[in-house]
Amino acid sequence: MRCLAENTETGKDLLRFLTCGSVDDGKSTLIGRLLWDAKLLCDDQIVAIEADSQRSGSHGQDIDFALLLDGLQAEREQGITIDVAYRFFETQHRKFIVADTPGHEQYTRNMATGASTADLAVILVDARKGILTQTRRHSFIASLMGIRHVILVINKMDLVDYDAAVFYSLRATYLDFAEGLGFETLSCLPVSALKGDNVCAASLSMPWFDGAPLLAQLEAVEVYSSADSLPFRMPVQWVCRPDLDFRGFCGTVSSGHIAVGDTVVVAASGQTSTVRRIVSFDGDRAEAWQGDAVNLVIADEIDISRGDTLAVPHDCPDFADQFSARILWMHADPLLPNRTYLIKIGTTVSGVRINRLDCRINVNTFERTAAECLALNEVGVCDVAVDRAVAFDSYAANRGTGRFILIDRYSNDTVGCGMILHALRRATNVYRHAETVSKSARVTLMHQKPCILWLTGLSGSGKSTLANVLEQHLHGLGCHTMLLDGDNIRHSLNRDLGFTDADRVENIRRVGEVAKLMVEAGLIVLVAFISPFRSERRMVRELMEDGEFLEIFVDTPFDVCCRRDSKGLYAKALNGDIPNFTGVQSPYEVPEFPELRVDGTADVATSTEAILALLRARGIL
Questions:
Q1: CA-to-CA distance for 123 and 139, rounded, in angstroms?
Q2: Which of 225, 531, 535, 607 is catalytic?
Q3: β-sheet bridge partners, residue 231
Q4: Do 452 and 519 contact (CB within 8 A), yes or no?
Q5: If we measure between CA atoms, which residue out of 384, 381, 386, 383 comes closest to residue 371?
Q6: Does the active-site annotation cover 438?
Q7: Predicted TM-score (pTM) of this structure
Q8: What b-and-e string marks burial along 582-620, b requiring 16 or more CB atoms within 10 Å of the CB?
Q9: Tally of structural domains, the chain
């Protein structure tokens, strides 16, 4: 086992750690002070920090050590950390990469990013404020991300007169909280980052504390990387084929070790071969370790492409399309079960659906409670279904191949990160049954081109009326049709669903699957649903073949919809009597690129003819 990323030339190992905690606990000041007191700054950096302190500092004429880390203008103006700031430094005993992470709740995702590659967490607490929710959240996320070594720094001891009772009380509170987090080592340290107490040297103001200062603890902590001792894993990022004589598979070794002559297996197919060459930027080499970016040339011509994972035959990763995972949600819009996202796991990007939200985990008490969604910064345990099988390990066994991110399909924003618990084997005994009568045979018999006409718009926009008249015209033309109306379906198939965002997502998922089956039967399916969310309308579109989903936006002004409402639903919603009513408390996301927009205030005959014209243009009629 190699000790972290050991440098064979210097004999020093590399420790990756992060600083985290609540807002204004002094994280940036602590690291800045450490670099200053340890004399790890160059002359030009010293000149720059002195000038910056006069211009942007918050300590009068004194050095503002936080400015060494807070590089963004917004950070300097507000005196807070927003982005993750990485710093490399080296002492006589060890090399370090520190990630200074934000304390604000809205930047929790940045803290999780820093934690994902760290071996140790320095968690700060303001001695005046005590253990806060964000302190607990960051501690929980550190544990979630696989960090097993923690130094709790009780900072700003100078502001509580270096009172030992304050330190020991906070230490006891934190140790009680952290008991269930699984940290292997946890030390507590009283510090004044501003004054330099217990940062690089023992504090004369706190003779009652006999422990080592922070830098000495960072240099001495025994943190070993197990990545080299894990089985070999390399996600393929690119197939390199510069000419007819060379074919290599590029990627970064995620874990383990590989050497020329070793046997490798493609996790997806089970095909094996031997490594003929290992090519790097510096030329051929005999072996590669975790973290090395290499190009593997194998002996046999087998099918390998981007997204595949190379492994060792005697210890392969799981290969499945379903797994259970812990998910940290990072977006203002909640995670909703059955909504589709993109997942990036290794070098694979695929569609994914959260099949079920098993529970939400309270970061303060670790209590697990039932939940319909995950809000910003919440953690839950979910069942995840990927569009196609992927290779992975559990996060506990291998951090490199056991983590993933979730991506919004529209904005491409990273909305969540996850740690895989285990594969789900529930559907391994279910196989698709071959059908003798195919979809094309049914379509030929009906002499029509099947499709979905998806009418979307606010309640009262005229969707159902238009769909009903349109079906009459199609029936008169001899077309085989079926009308699915939102209100009618909620009296039967979806009678168990309410009107929360999660229920609306499930409502459209079910209807989309039913509509797909009807298209398979060769029908022209008219769907009249509010379907307020673009994501779900897109999900149904992606179920269908190209050209089979036609989105028709019935565009009717809100005030017109209110006037048409004979049931008085809008009035009740505006009065607060009906919660989650679309267009009032719950949003309606207008289609961006519908196949057709019809004016909901026009007469029905005009709108019907516009839709029929679309069907003729698409070759459906």
A1: 7
A2: 531
A3: none
A4: yes
A5: 381
A6: no
A7: 0.74
A8: bbbebebeebeebbbbbebeeeeeebbeebbebbeeeeb
A9: 4
